[in-house]
Amino acid sequence: MSAKDQVLEAMKKAGKPLKAGEIAELTNLDKKEVDKAMKDLKKEELIVSPKTCFWEPK
After folding, report:
1. Domain range annotation of the chain
2. Which runs of E-coded beta strand occur in 1-58?
3. Which one of 11, 28, 53, 57 has the largest count of C-beta atoms within 10 Å of its C-beta?
């Protein structure tokens, strides 16, 4: 499973908006990997930010 898939899956399972650091803890990925995956997910419009620094699936 790619980092992007892991990040998206963690967000869906959480059922609430998460910070990148929380996602890193849930997925056991390095925060830099999470940031890169989230950047790609934002470009693909698969995640949105309901409030500053928090993200959730679209």
Report:
1. 3-57
2. 47-51, 54-57
3. 11
Gap between the Cα atoms of 34 and 24, Å rounded: 6
Q: Which residue has the tokens 């499973």?
A: 1
Largest CA-CA distance found in the chain, in angstroms, rounded: 28
CATH topology of domain 3-57: Arc Repressor Mutant, subunit A (1.10.10)
| pLDDT reading at 46 higher than 90 | yes
Question: What is the tens place of the pLDDT at every residue in 30-41?
Answer: 999 999 999 999
The pTM (predicted TM-score) of the whole model is: 0.87
